[in-house]
Write a structure and sequence with these properties.
It is a single chain. By secondary structure, this protein is α/β, with parallel strands linked by helices. The protein folds into four domains: 21-79, no CATH class; 83-255, no CATH class; 282-309 and 555-651, Aspartate Aminotransferase, domain 1 (Alpha-Beta Complex), CATH 3.90.1150.10; 320-553, Aspartate Aminotransferase, domain 2 (3-Layer(aba) Sandwich), CATH 3.40.640. The chain contains 20 helices and 26 strands. The chain has a seven-stranded mixed beta sheet, with helices on both faces. The protein has a six-stranded mixed beta sheet with strand order 6-11-10-9-12-7, sandwiched between helices. Helix 9 packs parallel to helix 17 (538-553), helix 10 runs parallel beside helix 11 (400-409) and helix 18 runs parallel beside helix 20 (635-651). It is elongated. It starts with a helix and ends with a helix. 44% of the residues are buried. The structure holds pyridoxal-5'-phosphate. Residues 373-375, 378, 399, 401, 441, 445, 470, 472-473, 501, 503, 511 line the site of pyridoxal-5'-phosphate.
Amino acid sequence: MDLVSRSSGVELRKKGRVAMPLYSVKMRASADDQHISGAEKIVPPHQIAPCAARLIQRAMSHAKGEPDQLHIKIEKLEEAGILFLDALPVRTLEVDNCRSGLEQVREFLRRLQISRVEEIIALLPKTYAMRGAMLLDVDTLERLEPDWERGVRATCMDAQRAGLPAGAEKNHFAEAIVLATKVAHAPNIIGELCISDDPEYVTGYAASLTTGYLRITKLKPLGSEQGGRIFLYRGDQSQVDRTISFLQEQPVIVRNVPVLAPPQPLCGKLAFLDEALERIQNNHLYRRMTPLQSAQSATVCCQGRELLMLASNHYLDMACVDEVKSYAAQVLGQYGAGSGGSRLTTGNTELHELLEQRIAEFKGTEAALVFNSGYVANLAAISSLMGRGDVIFSDELNHASIIDGCRLSRAEVVVYRHNDMDDLERKLWENPCGRGMVVSDGVFSMDGDILNLPRFVELANRYGLLSMVDEAHSTGVIGAAGRGIVEYYGGSCKPDILMGTLSKSVGSEGGFVCGSRTLIDYLVNRARGFIFSTALSPVTIAASIKALEYIEEHPERVRALQENVKFFCGCLKQQGVNACSETAIVPILIGDEQTAMEVSQALFDAGFFLSAIRYPTVEKGGARLRAALMATHTREQLQAAADAIAGVLREKMLL
Ligand code: PLP
């Protein structure tokens, strides 16, 4: 066998000489049909179970996110014999930046007597999305892998380890050496180039039998998923099948894999935070706070300038209504600043109970319960109502607080397509359950569209499940009197649970859950976010009471908001901007995160406060401006804003 003659460190363990059977344990994880992570270990029988458990754990905590499919494949190794190889010798090339890293790659290719160096480097990006590697004839630059989308994968290999449990924490370095050693021994392969697709790992390598394993410390920016791999092939192309079969099927165990010393901390225990922030910054996802120097109303003062506020959730501008402010001031004088305890100890006042009564009346339910924020209301309600063994059906665009509530509940979560009641029905049918819940935003917070409530409630009732709707952005906004989604649909279909916030149209703070008396009594006794947190201050509660009263007495304010939405969307359309909404939220899609930030900054410079919304609030590549209107915006202000938005979009060639 010519393999043996190519390296002195090769030994073939023949059939019959293997002391203990060995098994290959492979893990492959994906989400939305996109590969997330994969790994393989070769272990004796008693290590199969712990190894599989560790691989599962690793897949579930991958930096690229949680998988929706996870495959574990366990195979007894073929009788053909296991090839034992000595690990390639390793040399680390410290470089300051990616450019210097690529210079090392060029040098490596030249040493292999390759002349078409630049063309090969230019081919690396073509391999980014592939699960395997490009198999490239280095002289003709022909791609030899049979499936260009998938590439060729080197599998069936592992490091020989002493004592260490197989499948322990991910060790990029060890895994890369094992793979590179196998690849370097494959017939007709003269070398390999590799950049990891792990966003947290910027080190890449170039490897061959003659140069060994050259570890190049920087080949891409931190945070980038742009990895790639090329196997460099030279020689008779009729031998390609032999190469591929070696790469995919020949079991290989690599001996003497060096252990990498743990990296020195950059600046102590908190260095990982710097690294995480650098990654966020590289992806244009860094967030910073902008301090206002005024109350939040249709115009605000920020950085010493007056700006038109088009990003606030105070859709009805209630925080600045005189009656609200003076009642809150009066209550401050009477009750003082804080509440002093949780609702079940000393933090409950008559005002808290009055507010709950008013919310229940406004929403047309038997009872209501106030929480410290909308976020806590969702977390506490969902996690106390649902538990292990239950199933929650959740819209894919639901707010983060619903998602977190579902996670905290430990129920199984089935995500259905956005506002797609046919998909929900299909999933209800496919996932029968004893107890469960369907949950959705009423008005979706980043898209501004409205839930199909009649079908939602009908499906929940037909399948005997609780229905819950988050009214954070529908309360005060839709329905003739601003009572929300039930009023919007004529009042005949009502979910079991209405959740909402006091922080948006009501202009104060807090969240609430409305429903039957029994539901509320249950939450008082079981909802940890209610029980174990200090109650909202009476001042905040007073502001909510007065604001609700005001909204009920002034339906014209709700109408003004609804008219403003129609007017603003009309202005944008006239300018050729694709924007359409029935609610206070008018999304203007940009796509790229960096561009969205630039557009938002240009508008800020021109006097308009309009936030760019980016991943993870919306999907990657779905960055947008989220215009949020107020009842008190004037027509002139809205026209000026639409003109400015269109102007900046044109400047950026987005229109
Ligand atoms: N639900 C939705 C749909 C939201 O948009 C928000 C706020 O952004 C919340 C819940 C949380 O409400 P709060 O800000 O009062 O915590």
